[in-house]
Design brief:
Number of helices: 9
Order of helices and strands: HEHHEEEEHHEHHEEHH
Number of domains: 2
Distance between the termini: 64 Å
Radius of gyration: 40 Å
Number of strands: 8
CATH topology of the largest domain: Outer membrane efflux proteins (OEP)
CATH superfamily of the largest domain: Outer membrane efflux proteins (OEP)
Structural class: alpha+beta
Helix content: 55-70%
Strand content: 5-15%
Length: 454
């Protein structure tokens, strides 16, 4: 005994209704496709935090920033005097001629070298040096500018990493949802194949309907395999960025409703205040100016000051022979005035000015790029936001179209091609809804990153 057309239609429509509930329910979150993928529930903020611990480019930028801060500290302390405890013992071959210098025993032989004071000489001194000049000021300016540039470059690297993580995170979730949709589509194709086979057995449809349903089922199987492969690849790509083992199981946290599009004026204000590209360009300009300053400083003299306290005598002790007091101090000042270096300094100044002009061009380019990015990202987010309601409407219409087309087919009023077309339209509408939501989420994340909120 065969079921009536109405019974078969009611059974299939019940399957479609349950399928619609399953597909709609998974829109609020992403479940693991199998037990092997179950693991820690991962939010977007947690994913970003993990990526900052494992991404090599970000680690390099962070190390460079800390190194630049140390260089800045070194440049500042270089302005302060240095202290050295100097100890030395000298022995010089005597020349055989007796001398009677102060501090030496009578008729002691003189050293063979003119520069040495005695055959035996001992030095134990505290030496304090200080150099006063514009070159150290230039070095401090350069170190400050380099530190600021390194901080800006670290923020640029961080925001680039955030954009990558956000894209992979949402792509992983969307891929899992598409795989679930493909699985549901295969279930519907199996059910429709069963209906066509029963109708053929009852003599209500041609064998061509069964063949078309079988082709549709095979296509849905291939689509499911591709969707599952894409989901696995997306998980691995995200896992490479987050974990030492890319195969570490994790589950994405259920996604909340997308946030509302912020006011453009507020985004513009934050973007102008927190843009690292502009800060980096300004820091590069400061670096070029500091290099020019340092190059000009080479035209000016540096004043070197020295204070030495201790002994420099023929015997190691506070007092020498005949009660001579060895302990004492000496001071010196050195001022070298640059006169001629074959115009090397002038060429260095010219080089610095050329680089400075280039950094000014880079600064204006960064400002123009900020304006363009702000307009592009906001327009993208606005368009995606407006289209989300349209995707929802299209999905509802596609589901209703499939329901009505299936009813008409059960009653013999439509063809199998119309049912297949309605099923394909529903699948496309479901995937389009997911892609539209991800598009808006990515556009919104780009705006938040540009404003420094993410």
């Amino acid at each position: 005994m065969f079921m009536s057309a109405g019974q078969r239609g009611g059974m299939f429509l019940s399957c479609l209704f349950l399928a619609g509930i399953a597909v709609s329910a998974q829109g609020g979150g992403v479940a693991a496709s199998d037990g092997a993928q179950a693991g820690k529930v991962l939010t977007l903020d947690q994913a970003i935090a993990l990526a900052t611990q494992n991404e090599p480019a970000f680690a390099a930028a962070q190390a460079e920033m800390f190194a630049a801060r140390l260089d800045r500290t070194n440049a500042r302390v270089a302005m302060l005097p240095t202290a050295t405890y100097h100890n030395q013992a000298l022995y010089t071959e005597p020349n055989g001629v007796a001398s009677s210098r102060i501090g030496q025993t009578a008729n002691a032989p003189s050293p063979a070298f003119i520069a040495n004071n005695a055959v035996r000489e001992y030095a134990s001194q505290g030496v304090f040096n200080e150099t006063v000049g514009f070159s150290k000021v230039g070095a401090m300016k350069l170190a400050d500018a380099n530190a600021l540039r390194a901080e800006a470059e670290l923020e640029i690297a961080r925001r680039g990493l955030v954009s990558t993580v956000v894209a992979l995170y949402y792509d992983t979730g969307a891929s899992a949802e598409k795989a679930a949709i493909a699985q549901q589509a295969l279930t519907e194709a199996d059910g429709f194949l069963d209906i066509t086979q029963k109708r053929e057995s009852a003599g209500e449809s041609a064998h061509a309907d069964v063949l078309k349903a079988q082709l549709q089922q095979q296509q849905r199987q291939r689509e499911l395999a591709d969707a599952q492969l894409a989901a696995d690849k997306a998980r691995l790509e995200l896992g490479v960025l987050l974990y030492p083992d890319p195969g570490t199981p994790f589950t994405l946290a259920p996604s909340n409703a997308p946030a509302l599009l912020p006011d453009r004026a507020g985004v513009e204000t934050l973007a102008q205040q927190n843009n690292p590209e502009v800060r980096g360009a300004l820091a590069s300009l400061a670096v070029s100016k500091a290099e020019t300053y340092s190059a000009k400083a080479a035209l000016l003299p540096d004043l070197g000051l020295n204070f030495t306290y201790g002994i420099d005598a023929t015997n190691f002790g506070v007092n020498g022979p005949d009660g001579i007091h060895n302990l004492g101090y000496s001071m010196s000042a050195l001022l070298d005035i640059p006169v001629w270096d074959w115009l090397t300094t002038e060429r260095n100044i010219k080089q610095s000015r050329l680089r400075e002009n280039a950094t000014k061009v880079a600064l204006t380019a960064a400002q123009r790029r900020l304006i363009a990015n702000l307009a592009e990202y906001y327009a993208e987010a606005d368009a995606a936001n407006k289209q989300m309601a349209s995707y929802d409407t299209s999905l509802l219409a596609a589901r209703e179209s499939l329901r009505l087309t299936t009813l008409r087919y059960v009653d013999g009023e439509s063809t199998v091609l119309e049912v297949v077309d309605a099923q394909s339209t529903l699948i496309a509408a479901e995937n389009a809804q997911i892609e539209g939501r991800v598009r808006y989420q990515l556009a919104l994340a780009n705006l938040q990153t540009l404003a420094g909120k993410l």
